[in-house]
Design brief:
210 residues; alpha/beta; Rossmann fold; four-stranded mixed beta sheet; 6 helices; 25% helix; 34% strand; globular
């Protein structure tokens, strides 16, 4: 039986490629901001395009933080993509503006220290042993489009969630490329734009929805 996945429609912009990729990965996909559907789907995908602050404003306007909190508390899967990863952290510093994030993980999103921004294109990742998301694609390249990232991870315990598995990439400096933390996962890159490797990652995620 196909797993049901809601792509959270809070105004993030073009999510067509994410819908298609998730369908290709074997999910039954719905684009909606309906609270009941978002809470009860097997998986919830939180896309993110644009600035940290504007994404948080849009999410808060539809009660997104509460939906994500409720799903995680119930052990229901959530996958953040791009800025959808960034807003899971405590805060973001963008264009001199400090914005509060969802606070699922401690840490601050800031501008990458790199010679050229945005970081746009294919890059390798360093996946940890035991990764479910990257099973079979640990040595592949993924597609990034961003200028901001989390570069420090000091978290060792997220009780009651299991200790997170953190995947890294490097562009000017080392940054968080993905996190797997029990029901809560996120990628800084766009799996839906990452060819076969990205589809495999989404298939890995969908196949583990329960």
């Amino acid at each position: 039986m196909a797993r049901s996945v809601v792509v959270y429609d809070y105004g993030s912009g073009n999510v067509h490629s994410a819908l298609k990729a998730l369908e290709h990965a074997g999910a039954t996909v719905t684009l909606t901001r309906d609270r009941h559907e978002a809470l009860n789907a097997d998986g919830l995908v939180v896309p993110g395009v644009g600035a940290f602050g504007s994404v948080m404003t849009a999410l808060n306007s539809v009660g997104g933080g509460e939906v994500i909190d409720a799903r995680i508390a119930g052990g229901r899967a959530v996958l953040g993509i791009c800025v959808g990863l960034q807003v899971l952290f405590e805060s973001g510093q963008e264009h001199g503006v400090h914005s509060e994030g969802l606070g699922q993980w401690p840490g601050t999103v800031h501008k990458l220290d790199a010679p050229r921004l945005p970081h746009m294109g294919w890059n390798t990742i360093e996946a940890p042993s035991g990764s479910t998301l990257f099973a079979g694609v640990e040595n592949e390249r993924f597609y990034f489009v961003h200028s901001y990232a989390v570069t420090k991870w000091s978290l060792t315990n997220t009780d009651p969630l299991p200790n997170p598995l953190v995947t890294w990439a490097d562009y000017g400096e080392r940054f968080v490329a993905a996190v797997e933390n029990g029901p809560l996962c996120a990628t800084q890159f766009h799996p839906e734009k990452s060819g076969d490797a990205g589809l495999t990652l989404l298939e890995n995620w969908v196949s583990n929805l329960g």
